[in-house]
Amino acid sequence: MIKTIKSIINLLIIMVLLIGCNKEPQPVPVNPTVQSTKSESASEPLLNYNDYNQLFTKMVVDMNLRDHVQVDKTTSVNIVAIEPEYSFGKRKYLTADGEQSATTTQRRIIYKEKQADVYTLIDVIYTDHSMGKDMIYWPTQSLDIYQKQNKLKKYDQCMLAYNNVLINITRISKNKPLELAGMQHTIESVTDYLSHYKNN
Question: Which among 11, 35, 75, 158 could bridge 138 via Cys, Cβ 3.0 to 4.6 Å?
């Protein structure tokens, strides 16, 4: 009797193993949100270097930040020489062609809040790859060090992608911690401007 029960159990185990081995693997479900983001980014048109120049020039003239006044901007070609290994061997200068030329890939507009000692720096950075239109960086301030080092609360930064142009937004306060609303208004101003921007 015990031998019969053992034989039946062994037979059942073998059947379960055989059924499991014959079963086809199921495809891993794809996250549709991630997939569509990648395809949208790939299809976004690149701005050529002249388009980049025009975008920066128009931002200087036409883009306003709420309760801010523009105090400075890049007006001349500032070529930055770098060690090639800093760019993983891609270039020697921060220019579109990587050589010593007038095609600088970084420009800046600086604003100051009218009623506070707060500066907002808008960096417009040219790249040769499109990332679509997206916010790609805005670090949290919930780390423990922000509670211990009050100076860190006087600094905030985020980055937007506008096809192959990156927009880096930095806010710096001299006296008191920054309020979240200030960065929110700045982001809204920049994204609204870029959403309605016409490249003529």
Answer: 158
